[in-house]
Design brief:
Elements (H helix, E strand, L loop, with lengths): L2 E4 L9 H4 L9 H10 L4 E5 L5 E10 L15 E9 L8 H15 L4 E7 L3 H7 L4 E9 L10 E9 L17 E2 L8
Parallel strand pairs: 4-5, 6-8
Antiparallel strand pairs: 1-2, 2-3, 3-4, 5-7, 6-7
């Protein structure tokens, strides 16, 4: 049986089962701790009955600063999935949906407009999992480290799920795969 709970600092030393995957981003310990300190309600783990971390989601809430409100690609207050991973032997059990659901509830509690995440174009499993979110736009050549070795760069899909604040669904679009932007068009303050 798997349980879902808040991430704790000592969990950093127990994530190997989930992190040993070429499509999972791995970060420095200080990056994980920064998220844990700033957004503890958006950092959740799945743990099996033996105490193994079988997956986790790490997210944040943010918005672009006021001086970029006039830009076409301005982002209002929203949730962002920074990392989501499930250990290979625990996939297809619904853990990814359970973990993202926990993050969505945390973002709802903070009155976010939507939750987004970037997914590698070639990560068919993730693209299919999140297809229900909707693709907002394609970020051309966003990733420069294609783990499959098929090409030197890879596009990202910016996938979004509107939350209850976005009653008019103004922060999503149809056919987002065809709406191309360059990485430099995104604000990265």
């Amino acid at each position: 049986m798997t349980s879902i709970r808040a991430f704790r600092p000592q969990d950093l030393f127990r994530t190997n089962l989930a992190n040993l995957d070429p499509l999972t981003e791995n970060y420095n310990i200080d990056f994980y701790l920064q998220y844990l300190c700033k957004w503890p309600s958006l950092f959740t783990v799945a743990e099996d009955q033996h105490g193994n971390i079988t997956g986790y989601v790490m997210g944040k809430v943010e918005e672009d600063p006021p001086y970029v409100h006039f830009m076409e690609n301005y982002l209002p207050w929203h949730g962002h999935v920074t990392a989501l991973t499930v250990a290979p032997q625990y996939r297809r059990l619904g853990l990814a949906k359970t973990l993202t659901g926990a993050l969505e509830r945390g973002c709802e509690a903070q009155d976010a407009w939507f939750v987004d995440l970037f997914v590698r174009e070639g990560n068919d499993t993730a693209v299919n999992l999140y297809r229900g979110l909707g693709v907002f736009r394609r970020v051309v050549d966003y990733y420069s480290d294609d783990p499959t070795g098929r090409k030197p760069v890879e596009d990202a899909y910016d996938m979004r799920k509107p939350l209850s604040r976005d009653k008019k669904r103004q922060h999503i679009r149809e056919n987002g795969e065809n709406f191309r932007v360059n990485p430099e068009d995104l604000y990265h303050g």
